[in-house]
Amino acid sequence: MNRDIVLPGGAEQTNELSASVLKAWSDELASEQWPQAAEVLKRDARKAVYALGIRLEKKMDNQRKEEERLRLLFSFEDRAQTNGFFQIAGIDEVGRGPLIGPVVAACVILDRGQDWSGVDDSKKLSEKKREMLYEKIVNHSVYGIGSAEASEIDEINILNATKMAMKRAIEDLAINFGGMVPDYLLIDAVKLADISIKQEAIIKGDSKSASIAAASIVAKVTRDRMMAVLHEIYPEYDFINNKGYGTPQHYKALEMHGMLDEHRRSFLKNFSQKRG
């Protein structure tokens, strides 16, 4: 028995304990204890206990893979820091394609002292995972949120409105955090030509940069919550499920009830009726 591993109840050997007790024990172990615990469990003749050891080894393998994924995901941030930049912000937006509501952008400077396991392109995450990561990001990061409303999208087009939302997110970060301004921007696919901050546009940046991925999560959760509020007012459009995209239910509601003030008229030239 390895002396660094303490079994529950003061047991000396795993065969003194049931598989269910050992499972509960192994579930509570710190990750640095997994290698030793896995070896101890695999020495037990019982198949169920041996399987617990294999399970710990799989957890170790998954942890190694996640550490490597995060190392690559922070490569753009690390390179910028090597080049002398320290307030490195990721920027991303959501809501270019919907028929209604704003395009929303977020600007995020991650605290590198935190464990950012699980951070990824918001589109790859479940709603539950996005919400969990959103709470961690807004509580342990410097961030700002900006948006451009449907009327602005209609006036200046969706690309320019996206850039406007991104600039507003940078401004919001400064307002919320004592005038702090990023000294380097990592932006998902877009260049902001009329700002002086050094920047880098990264195609599919939300899956290549941790900071951009974090911004995608903040922007996505923020906009989804906006659509949930709109759904409470106009449930017939099914915004809680379609998030404003052009689903059959959404188009059906448009035909029956017309456009709302929040609809993008430039996206709906075939619908001229306005609700009320």
How would you characterize the overall build of this protein?
The chain has 276 residues and is an alpha/beta fold. The chain folds into two domains: 8-73, no CATH class; 89-220, Nucleotidyltransferase, domain 5. It has ten helices and five strands. The chain has a five-stranded mixed sheet. β1 and β2 form a beta hairpin. α2 packs antiparallel against α3. The radius of gyration is 24 Å and the shape is globular.
What is the architecture of the largest domain at the second tier of CATH? 2-Layer Sandwich
Number of continuous helical runs: 10
Helix content: 40-55%
Provide the number of structural domains: 2
Radius of gyration using CA atoms only: 24 Å
> Which class best fits the helix and strand makeup?
alpha/beta
pLDDT below 50 for ≥5 consecutive residues: which ranges? none
Gross geometry: globular
Keyphrases for this structure?
5-stranded mixed beta sheet; globular; 2 domains; alpha/beta; 276 residues; Nucleotidyltransferase, domain 5
Summarize the structure.
This protein has two domains: 8-73, no CATH class; 89-220, 2-Layer Sandwich (Nucleotidyltransferase, domain 5), CATH 3.30.420. Helix content is 47%, strand content 12%.
Chain-wise SSE layout:
Elements: H1 19-27, H2 34-42, H3 47-73, H4 75-82, E1 88-94, E2 103-110, H5 127-139, E3 141-148, H6 150-156, H7 158-176, E4 184-188, E5 198-202, H8 210-233, H9 239-242, H10 248-257
Helix pairs in contact: 1-3, 2-3, 5-8, 6-7
